[in-house]
Design a protein that fits this description.
By secondary structure, the protein is an alpha/beta fold. Helices cover 40% and strands 12% of the residues. It has two domains: 186 residues, Aspartate Aminotransferase, domain 1 (Alpha-Beta Complex), CATH 3.90.1150.10; 252 residues, Type I PLP-dependent aspartate aminotransferase-like (Major domain) (Aspartate Aminotransferase, domain 2, 3-Layer(aba) Sandwich), CATH 3.40.640.10. The strands form five sheets. The protein has a five-stranded mixed beta sheet with strand order 2-8-7-6-5, sandwiched between helices. Strands 9-12-11 form a three-stranded antiparallel beta sheet. Helix 1 packs antiparallel against helix 14, helix 12 runs parallel beside helix 16 and helix 14 crosses helix 16. It is globular, with a radius of gyration of 22 Å. The protein binds pyridoxal-5'-phosphate.
Length: 473
């Protein structure tokens, strides 16, 4: 018999959820223009839009908030945070920022010159935007396997050393201010990088005197996959694995809203003293004094406590297993999802889910809207709508992957919630032929996915054809 496990926490405070009925959801969806970003959070039953800043804090973190030192300079809470980062991540110097993109801004401004190249393992939106804003060209050096959604490969986030070395030879090492390695790779589906690859990339970069800077936002999830999949690490603790990972880098940017288990916060960390001195100057302009960087003292206390809690083996095991628990129910039901299941989300392949829809009929947007209508579960489109238009031709970019992302917040939902989500997706799959496409009725000029509005293509105006009886009414 396979023994089951449960959440490694018990619930001390609860937030009641509003549960709309089918007709109410139908109205809310229509008012939101069939865009899940525009649905009021109050009208959502299970919110899987993002895992960014949606974490549930522990009783210790709530307690730590009360101990925040709100002094303008030299706050005690700042030293608490600095110590936590030094102890767990191993870097010498830390600069607090209001969130991850604040750190990306400082790093890009300090290190990039016009005409530089920044290689990375796939890109993240804000990370890449800051690199480009400072005059760099981003070059994707992730392994080819990462682009194949159905390929089951353990470390799909790895950097292709041949691609990286080829770039170094082409443009010259002096044009590469640093390599930006994301651990794990969000846009590839939360896929990890192996320890061996981190080490090889670092060795190669040392040879050419190029720095390696991590996007460490999801580093604890990455450490778990190393423990699970890489030979020699199965008996090491998450804390030890994480420490080793960071030895193969010169610094990192961090969004505290993910693996540091807080609702807001971030930091930049590094080992180079000169870089740190410059960062202390720059942070004052954009964030605040080097001893708070856009954060309240209490936020720094909560983040420090979150950093310690995040390296608990039981916590991170449950986190990854919960995502997988949802993903495997869908795989067992024959539903097309991106494989292997990554660290923070399950991605539905909307093109395969709704093969009767053309790409222009926005299958992922339509599936995300249908899921909300069916059960009040909110997800996010990651496909042709998010892809935007080509700046030159004005044509829709047609990304290879047309996905719906079900992102699991940390410590917020139980596995029973995952069952409800799985039931709803399976229910929709059974009547997938009845789901119609959408057309855009309002298209904002930039980042259109946030504010675009849609309407169903069906003549009767219904998103899900005929009698759409739902699993949860
Ligand atoms: C969220 C995220 C960021 C940006 O962090 P913010 O705190 O949202 O500014 C950067 N990189 C990755 C991989 C992320 O997931």
């Amino acid at each position: 018999m396979k023994r089951r496990t449960a959440e490694p926490y018990k619930i001390k405070a609860v937030e009641p959820l509003k549960m709309l009925n089918y007709e109410e959801r139908k109205r809310a969806l229509k008012e939101a223009g069939y865009n899940t970003f525009l649905i009021n959070s109050e009208d959502v039953y299970i919110d899987l839009l993002t895992d960014s800043g949606t974490t549930a804090m522990s009783d210790r973190q709530w307690g730590a908030l009360m101990t925040g030192d709100e002094a303008y300079a030299g706050s005690k809470s700042w030293f608490t945070l600095e110590n936590a980062v030094r102890e767990i991540y191993g870097y010498k110097y830390v600069i607090p920022t209001h969130q991850g993109r604040g750190a990306e801004n400082l790093l890009s401004q300090m290190k990039i010159k016009e005409g530089d190249y920044v290689p990375g393992n796939m890109y993240f939106t804000t990370t890449r935007a800051h690199q480009e804003l400072n005059g760099a060209t981003f070059v994707d050096v992730i392994i080819d396997e990462a682009h194949d959604s159905l390929l089951d490969y353990p470390f799909k986030g790895n950097i292709d050393l041949t691609k990286l070395e080829k770039l170094i030879h082409e443009v010259g090492a002096e044009k590469i201010p640093y390599v930006c390695t994301a651990v794990t790779v969000n846009l590839a589906g939360g896929q990890p990088v192996s320890m061996q690859n981190l080490k090889e990339v670092y060795d190669l970069c040392q040879k050419y005197h190029i720095d390696v800077m991590y996007d460490a936002t999801r580093c604890v999830e990455n450490a778990f996959f190393i423990q699970e999949r890489e030979e020699g690490y199965e008996n090491k603790s998450i804390k030890d694995i994480l420490k080793e990972m960071f030895t193969y880098s010169d610094g990192c940017t961090m969004s505290g809203k993910k693996d540091c288990l807080v609702n807001i916060g971030g930091f930049l960390a590094m080992n180079d003293e000169d870089l740190y001195t410059r960062a202390r100057e720059l942070v004052v302009l954009y964030e605040g004094m080097p001893s708070y960087g856009g954060l309240a003292g209490r936020d720094m206390e909560a983040m420090a406590q979150g950093i310690y809690e995040s390296v608990d083996d039981h916590y991170i095991q449950h986190r990854i297993h919960q995502v997988r628990y949802l993903g495997e129910q869908l795989i067992d039901a024959g539903i097309p999802v991106v494989k292997p299941i990554g660290g923070h989300a399950v991605f539905l392949d909307a093109k395969q889910f709704l093969p009767h829809l053309k790409h222009e009929e926005l299958p992922a947007q339509s599936l995300a809207a249908s899921l909300y209508l069916d059960s009040g579960v909110r997800s996010m489109e990651r496909g042709i709508v998010s892809g935007g238009r080509n700046k030159v031709t004005g044509e829709n970019n047609k990304p290879k992957l047309e996905l719906v992302r079900l992102t699991i917040p940390r410590r917020v939902y139980t596995n029973n919630h995952m069952d409800v989500v799985a039931d709803s997706v399976i229910h929709l799959y059974e009547k997938r032929e009845q789901i119609t496409g959408l057309e855009m009725t309002y298209e904002p000029p930039t980042l259109r996915f946030f504010n675009a509005r849609f309407k169903p293509l069906a003549v009767n105006g219904e998103l899900i054809g005929s009698e759409a009886s739902s699993t949860t009414t």
